[in-house]
Amino acid sequence: MGKAKKANPKKHLSHPYNNKKQSSSKGAPVRAQFKQHTKHVSKSSAAKPQSQQRQGLPFGVEDRILLVGEGDFSFARSLQSYHRCSSLTATSVETRASLLSKYPQAASNIASLEAASHQVLYSIDATKLGRPHAPGASSLRNSRYNVIIFNFPHVGGKSTDVNRQVRLNQELVVKFLEHARGLLVESGKVLLTVFEGQPYELWGVRNLARHAGLRVDRSMNFDAELYPGYKHVRTLGNIEGGGGWKGEDRSARMFIFVHGNAHRVLGSKQADGRSRGEDEYEDGDEDDQYHSETTA
Questions:
Q1: Residue 225 zone, left/alpha/beta (φ > 0; ψ -120 to 50; rest)
Q2: Residue 204: which residues within 8 A CB-CB, separation 6 or more?
Q3: Which residues contact 150 (CB under 8 A, 6 or more apart)?
Q4: Cα–Cα distance, 200 to 194 (Å, whole number)
Q5: CA separation for the pair 74, 125 (Å, rounded)
Q6: Three-state DSSP class for 290?
């Protein structure tokens, strides 16, 4: 008998969302640009809002920004306190009581946001944004945003079956994108951050956007160091003792979606005044590894 062929992990998923193969390429890290740039910050520029000194950030300080699926609100607080973003609506799928039970450290982040007159909302389901009768709908339904951000979407450990878990996360992303699209201004954009590698590349993020009437305008490395104070937290809550796993240290990619028929006009300039970062790519470039081969 011959040796059994080793299973290809990319060929075990059959799902209508995964129907196109993409290839991979990466550009210069944003982190290197940031470190080089900060060496030359003069005293006169030190008083300017911090974001105006950052390179490659996909939002502007004056953008109306909606944050979906916040964990302990440390990302939102970084945008508020470090990047000086002027209009933030930060949301969590948890109730306030449940959130503080899972992430006690969230209390100080929320207090900081509210003290700066930013909006914090609870029980906001990313798959039902702005829908009538959904929790928080009245706060979102009549609002329009320049930027909507969902970092590291995940349904949690709902299944030990890889195929089912992948499908559940695909459905989460598609429903989020569908509803987020309706809350964008015409030139708005949706930012979605996911980890690189397995099983995340099986989600087929680029293809999911097409099901929601959006397209990938470009993508970029997600560098957690550009967001001081940000800590990635698990869906199930804090780990006693902190644990050895740190999501902010893992390789991740941020996808930037625009309306499917949108041109390359994305509203206000980025925080550094440029239209795109050095580590970003246009739609159609070979800029990610997100694909899944399907079998019959």
A1: alpha
A2: 17, 18, 19, 20, 170, 290, 291, 292
A3: 67, 68, 69, 126, 176, 180, 190, 191, 192, 193
A4: 7
A5: 19
A6: coil
Instruction: Pick the closest to residue 215 from 279, 261, 252, 167 (CA basis).
Output: 261
Burial of 75 (0-12, 13-18, 19+ CB in 10 A): buried
Classify residue 181 as exposed, middle or buried by CB count within 10 Å of its CB (0-12, 13-18, 19+). buried
Q: Tokens at residue 105, please?
A: 């450290």
Task: Report the C-alpha dihedral over residues 65, 226, 207, 156, rounded to 10 degrees.
Answer: -80
Query: What's residue 156's pLDDT?
Result: 77
Residue tagged 């890290």 (tokens): 29
Q: How far apart are the first and last CA of the chain?
A: 26
Element (H or E) spanning 168, and its range? helix 162-181
pLDDT band at 113 (very low <50, low <70, confident <90, very high): very high
The number of helix segments (H) and strand segments (E) in the chain equals 7, 7
Give the mean pLDDT of 223-230: 92
Distance (Å, whole) CA 60 – CA 15: 37
Q: How many CB atoms lie within 10 A of CB 32?
A: 13
The per-residue pLDDT for range 146-195, each reduced to its tens digit, is 999 999 998 876 667 888 989 999 999 999 999 999 999 999 999 999 99
Q: Token match 């209390």: residue?
A: 107
Nearest Cα neighbor of 162 from 200, 134, 131 is 200
Overall average pLDDT of the 105-123 stretch: 96
pTM over 0.85: no
Question: What residues contact residue 88 under an 8 Å CB cut-off, 6+ apart?
Answer: 65, 67, 76, 79, 80, 113, 118, 119
Tell me how far apart the alpha carbons of residues 219 and 112 are, in angstroms, rounded to a whole number. 30
